[in-house]
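INFO  loader      accepted 1 record
INFO  loader      residues=293
INFO  predictor   begin
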Amino acid sequence: MLGVLIGINVSIVLIIVYFLLPSSKKYVAAEALQKVNPQEVEIKSTFHQTLGFINKSIAKKYLKNAKEKIQKEIGDAGIKQTPEHIVIEQFSYPIITLIIAIGFYFLLHSIMVLLIGGGVAVYLIFEPRAKLKKLAKKRKETIREQTPNFVLTCNLLLKGGLIPVDALKLSCEYASTDALKPFTDQLKEDLNHLHPVDAIRTFAKSTKVPEMIEFSATLIQFMDLGPTEEGLENLKQMEETFRELNKKVLAQEVVRRPQKIKVANWIIGLDGMALIISAIAMYFVQMMSGGIH
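INFO  predictor   done
INFO  writer      dumping tokens
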């Protein structure tokens, strides 16, 4: 019983340590792999030399098959990593976890340690790519939340008499933040070299946000119509649509913040209860075995 409790606590500690580890920029194996030419599909000897406990052929085959998908997931998540980096995490963390679990098994002679260690290892195989998908989803939601401010700023500049290209450039400069900024920076660059319609379409498509795509279609239509009665009416409808969207975003944020606080309080409470229950259980186990008098 004592071994089981210790095994569970050890596994929890392993998970906590994994999530508290600093960025993998200091991870030697990851740094070595990032030097590999990203155009090359094969894994060079650096991979095998740095992580010799990983079978080279298995790792190479996995990366070759999954590299394109992983690269797309990294792009959607908006982070600076390489597919090789993700593969290292998928292989190394589970193996290290299993090695630690086996070590504790021989110390504690508890099969529960192996079972929990195996479960954590399986989880860590899929976690790096699952994390990318979560980041991509969060990024898309953030872009959607920032879209009304960008669109309404552009709309205000158009109503003030600026031409669409100049209105867009000023909006990119002063009305884009966080998740939206990499896209607006690219839009500014494209507006200097591409046809405005192509630049706007590329920008909207790259964000993958329906509302931004809707804005681009309205803006392109306004560029065709000019400041005519129909063109100004389209701008007015667009303004009403995005003001309504902005109200919804603000309302969601008002609801979301108290929920985040409640979740954090629940996590802290459950963590405290788990520690207390573990301590009481260990006390009774020692008392029953005659360890406490």
